[in-house]
Design a protein that fits this description.
The protein is mainly alpha-helical. The chain contains seven helices and no strands.
Amino acid sequence: MNKANVINGLKEFGSSVIDGVREDFQTQIDQEIQEAVDLEFSRGIDRAVAALFEVTEDRVAIVTALQKHWGIGIKEAEERVQWEARTRAPMRSLERFLKEKKNYTDDEARKFMRDNKVVSLLRQDPELSTMKPEQLYKELQKRS
């Protein structure tokens, strides 16, 4: 083996290492891009569910619209509508009530929600989800 062969071998080895690193890096970038796309897709569905739920509480119509326009399965659509009806919509209504009727700041409203474990309570007690914001507020005060 002569010096030129050794140099060429080292160049080829270095080139293959660089190609491997480049491929791994591109794979990582592609994965991060796909995760970001998936997250934004999911957020878009959540916003659509919230908007549809404000317009109608007809869960069948909302599920059908999600399936038709977002291409998601019936199970996922039903779960998202359930989460909206049981948790997110009552939370938004309560937060709006706290700010508009009780003059809470954004931070105070978030603190009230956190301190009173509103998400957990809504998930555990379906009756709370059916209450008007004023009723929910009073019930939470009783429990704290």
